[in-house]
Amino acid sequence: MKVTVLAGGVGGARFARGVREHARRSGDIERIDVVVNTGDDWWLAGVRIWPDHDSLLYTLAGENDDERGWGRRGESERVAAELQAWGVTPPWFTLGDLDLGTHLARTAWLRAGETPSQVARRLGTRWDLGVTLHPATDDEIDTHVVVEGGDRMHFQEWWTRHRASLPAIRFEHAGIAKASPAPAALAAIGAADVVLVAPSNPVVSIGPILAIPGMRDALRRAPAPVVGVSGIIGGAAVRGMADSCLAAIGVETDAAAVARHYGARSRGGLLDGWLVAEEDAASGPALTADGIPSVAVPLWMRDADTSARLAADALAHASTLRADARRA
Amino acid sequence: MKVTVLAGGVGGARFARGVREHARRSGDIERIDVVVNTGDDWWLAGVRIWPDHDSLLYTLAGENDDERGWGRRGESERVAAELQAWGVTPPWFTLGDLDLGTHLARTAWLRAGETPSQVARRLGTRWDLGVTLHPATDDEIDTHVVVEGGDRMHFQEWWTRHRASLPAIRFEHAGIAKASPAPAALAAIGAADVVLVAPSNPVVSIGPILAIPGMRDALRRAPAPVVGVSGIIGGAAVRGMADSCLAAIGVETDAAAVARHYGARSRGGLLDGWLVAEEDAASGPALTADGIPSVAVPLWMRDADTSARLAADALAHASTLRADARRA
């Protein structure tokens, strides 16, 4: 079986690691591809930073700092202090030294003319990831945020400097009208037996992937069922600041509301199925009536076991949907 | 008095520090400008490296590693190991973390469209240098070395990887035919009361400065006397691998031979005067006959005292030459 996951950063990385763990245990997954959000990417001090990709890379490589939740294990910040002394980085964004090595390598390859997909492939060879990472697009679609009062800033400034505390009016992806899905990402979607939507931020992680012209069509045409996992449990975001993002687009911080925001694939949306936490089970019948058959399972990814189980539950739900579709 | 120094890296930095020390002690130097060799500059892993400029910057800032002789005090190499793991830097060139901060800031400003002269000015504001550094040219004139057998490599590979051990046939500066002196460097030469040529490598430090079209003319037209300091003492280079470089251009490793290589300004060359070590005093009369009046003084720059004294000796020699010229 081939599994393709749409994913953002930290939550996506934990989910992808769970899928890989399930694959190792079950032995019935031959290939895992991850289509990675590029909406968080940005240029800083002349280097190209891919926060979500690198969260996936380091987590799958076992090189992430699990305590802090992001970045490299054993990280230091020697260069960052210099960059701030020179005034080329703002005080609210610190580049780790080990992380900077990745940024510099990536930037060198990009400047040499390689596409982001090619660069991701190179970055993926250093460690045995067991997963192939694909930027959702080879075009730059950096996110900007328009906040109340009309100020416009790069997503990273809103997210990292202001901790998403400035009320956002809308998110804009510069240049997205001319962007297209990366061919390798499209191929991974087209070849998948199951497409899973990770419990990542629906607005700023999954949203930018879906906003790439052609991506929604590709997902609708995919032969595989598309099953999403809620990143909202009992009305609260599992991590990150998803509530601020959902508020900006007028969606409630609620598992069912997010499912309806994605929409039923049978009615032109994204999802064939949906996984919610057990405390959100009550929304199940209404969602099923809305064309998004849902199951309630344990959603907390605490360790390898719980993450692998969540992946197994998502694949089992996809399998049921496929069987239902065959019967229909 | 305004003093302008032509200089390369480590030797040039020590000499410039000596000029500054003499200025502080004597109180009769109002301004020190240094025209810096750019022939060692190169691109590595997408960042622009200015070895000679940075040796001057760190030395004048008191931030250099005096024991090692180059780079920053308290340096570490966390990023370098990553860059090598990614394969974007060769194993024979290690970028220090603190140093990398400088490279990244510089590269960001260059990519934003600033000239090297503008960037040098910015870099010069962080510390109180007491000296203004000017790249000799705003054009890239990276040095390549053709070695016996015909192989061609970047100067840094020849110098750092091979320790100048491969016999060099010639040095080539890519793009130098279209290069021109940086306006600020020219202005510093034109406004000087004395021009000093630091005891830097005559071939790969002073040579590239002189090879910039228009630079020799500017020095010939300068109203100030031009006085050089030998980097060769008793037939041996004070530091670096000047002998390999001199051999490549067919010049003996000898203080008088280097003076003749620079040539008498009165006969179309560079020098009005020349300082040699006391052990090389015997060459004095012949050099004077060749139009390069020489004096023998202690050349070893061991500390602030000896460096300041050497600067004072060079300025005194220039003063004598000026008086002689007035009498003539």
Question: How would you portray this structure in words?
Answer:
The structure is a homodimer. In chain A, strand 11 and strand 12 (about 235) form a beta hairpin. The first copy, chain A, starts with a strand and ends with a helix. Chain A is an alpha/beta fold and about 325 residues long. Chain A contains 13 helices and 14 strands. In chain A, helix 1 (about 10-25) packs parallel to helix 2 (about 50-60) and helix 1 (about 10-25) crosses helix 13. A seven-stranded parallel beta sheet of chain A has the order 5-2-1-9-10-13-14, sandwiched between helices. Chain A is globular. Chain A folds into two domains: about 1-140 and about 185-325, CofD-like domains (Rossmann fold, 3-Layer(aba) Sandwich), CATH 3.40.50; about 145-175, no CATH class. Chain A has helices at about 10-25, 50-60, 80-85, 95-110, 115-125, 155-160, 185-190, 205-210, 215-220, 240-250, 255-260, 285-290, 305-325, and strands spanning about 1-5, 30-35, 40-45, 45-50, 130-135, 145, 150-155, 170-175, 195, 225-230, 230-235, 235, 275, 295. The mean pLDDT of chain A is about 95. Helix content of chain A is about 40%, strand content about 15%. The interface of A and B includes residues 45, 100, 102 and 126 of A. Chains A, B: GO terms for molecular function: LPPG:FO 2-phospho-L-lactate transferase activity; magnesium ion binding. Chains A, B: It is an enzyme of class 2 (transferase). Chains A, B: Its EC number is 2.7.8.28. Chains A, B: InterPro entries: CofD, CofD-like_dom_sf, FbiA/CofD. Chains A, B: Keywords: Magnesium, Transferase.
